[in-house]
Amino acid sequence: MVASERPLAVVILAAGQGKRMKSGLVKVLHEVAGRPMLAYSLALADALDAERVVVVVGRDSEKVRDAFAGRPLFVNGRACFVEQEERRGTGHAVQTAQPALDGFAGDVLILCGDTPLLRLETLERMRAQKADARLDLLILSAPAPMPGVLVRGTDGRVERIVELVDATPEERQIREGNTGVYLVAAEFLRKALEQLDDRNAQHEFYVTDIVKIAVREGRALDALCLDDADEALGINTRAELARASAVARRRVVERLMDDGVTFIDPEAVWLDVDVEVGRDTVIEPGVMITGPSRVGERCRVRAHTVIESSVLSDDIVIGPSAHLRPGCRIEAGVRIGNFVEVKNSHVGPGVKADHLSYIGDADVAAGASFGCGSITVNYDWQHKHRTTIGEGAVIGCNANLVAPLRLGARAYVAAGSTITGDVPDGALAVARERQRNVEGWADRKRPRKAKLEPGKE
Question: Least C-beta-crowded within 10 Å: which of 50, 121, 288, 377?
Fold first, then answer.
């Protein structure tokens, strides 16, 4: 086996307290562009085809397990959780993972669960460089200050990593930071972890000390410096969470523009990382698309529209200020206009709902249309019910369709009607009281004021 084909294991450090987040939610479950930040590291491990993935958890470990245990990596046995009950630093966390790596021979990639912006291409470069140079240890560094810095000798070789809390004034001036990502031979890692001690200002076991041990033993090591320091952004505060989300969203927009999507103002949209958009679609400012949503080709998403976890086919116009709530499937040629809300519905080809309507829990066949203010009444204060609307049906303005209900094909609903029973194919449903005009009502209801005496106005 050549070095580049060495088996890979991934250890993800996700046991941090996250105190600076000041949150009741464990840090690694905070979302970055629609995904919990830990999901990014797990996705990388999966993409790298790691044989084993060990996630070290600590605070609220049951919540973390519950959030991810159903994912394929864990279901098929490639990944497992281990708990760091006593949290004594990053070195101690990696030591905690070692029993799960028993018998593993290959390379171990150490990742941080709160560093969601790393690119797969970067980690593949690390594997290639380690293999080509036959290294025992490769460090990922960044051209920016980090909690730790790389100290190099006069020959440029890495000598050690120093945590800033333990650094000298001279070392604090170093601009090459340690990202906390390491690719290390499993055999060396096991031996190095046995030599860690807590003789430092924090009285913790630092995984960074494996660098010092590698130098002392004459091991082959090096560092790969990132071109983009954003990749190494670790999240410890709400401000860093917002910054990471902004970077992730920018990447999504750039990827989609490369694929043929037009953004009128790329900085004025919010798209989650799992959003897909087809070519020749135009997205206007103020649009938010979240969750695992897909928008087809040649669509127009007008300003201030919100799309949540929904699938849109091709040639759709939606908005401005429309809202697709989760679970919508919108077929080709649909037109959804301003202030229309759709929820958990299948809307067939060519349907039109141009303004001020609510379509909830409905199955709408091709060519149906909704007049202004028409509503599916889907909730009876206890249960949600579905409405079925046949092909070519026409619902007039300000009509209420009280579910469960079926409108037949080419059925019509008169404006202002409240429909509580099924409507046959081709029928017109009218459900409203006959108009009557009460003559003189205004004068009787609001008689003129009596004229006040002088001085009492």
Answer: 121
